[in-house]
Design brief:
The protein is α+β, with helices and mostly antiparallel strands. Helices cover 28% and strands 27% of the residues. A four-stranded antiparallel sheet has the order 4-3-6-7, with no helix packed on it. It has a three-stranded antiparallel sheet with strand order 1-2-5, with no helix packed on it. Helix 1 packs antiparallel against helix 2. It starts with a helix and ends with a helix.
Length: 179
């Protein structure tokens, strides 16, 4: 094999490796964590068994919203988000739960959620604070896609191994011809 042919063969292998690296490589793309869901209550210190206004936003228009009281889950009912994704409802808190608790709103369709903390006092001892602080804790209902595109990296490795093997065979063949 002439020196020119060897030069072109080596250049061809290098170009093939570069094309394979570009074609099979991709970046890991994770969707950013966005929290557009909000939730607030009319009274941050209600009494056990009392009614409070719950209002939220950022949900899918028309979806059913499940409302519940947490530490010990207590179903507060459901409501429907309006055309703008917001809702308002009056709920009655559990008569048996006192202390620090969380009211949670979860969209049945989207899985998005929001929550607000309340300090529930004993029966009949509710406060008069109005307007919730709306510390929504919504999410997309799943994990973000993270990691590395291993198929591209693995393919590049296979191409490089194959190229190295071909170069080794060509070198051995050349030694036999020259000997």
């Amino acid at each position: 094999m002439s020196a020119t042919k060897r030069l072109f063969a080596a250049a061809g292998v290098i170009i093939a490796v570069i094309i394979a690296a570009v074609a099979f490589s991709s970046t890991a793309s994770a969707a950013p964590y966005v929290n557009n869901n909000t939730l607030g209550v009319s009274d941050q210190t209600p009494c056990a068994g009392c009614s409070v206004q719950v209002a939220g936003g950022g949900f899918t228009p028309g979806e059913t919203i499940d409302l519940s009281e947490h530490s010990t889950p207590f179903n507060l009912g459901t409501t429907t988000a309006g055309a703008d994704g917001s809702f308002a409802a009056t709920v009655t808190l559990s008569p048996n739960l006192v202390g620090q608790h969380t009211i949670v709103a979860v969209g049945e369709t989207s899985g998005h959620s929001a929550s607000v903390s309340v300090d529930i006092a004993g029966s009949g001892a509710g406060g008069q604070e109005t307007g919730g602080n709306g510390n929504g804790s919504g999410g997309s209902g799943g994990l973000a896609a993270t990691g590395v595109a291993v198929i591209g990296i693995g393919s590049l490795g296979v191409v490089l191994l194959a190229g190295g093997g071909l170069m080794l065979l060509a070198g051995r063949r050349r030694q036999k011809v020259n000997a």
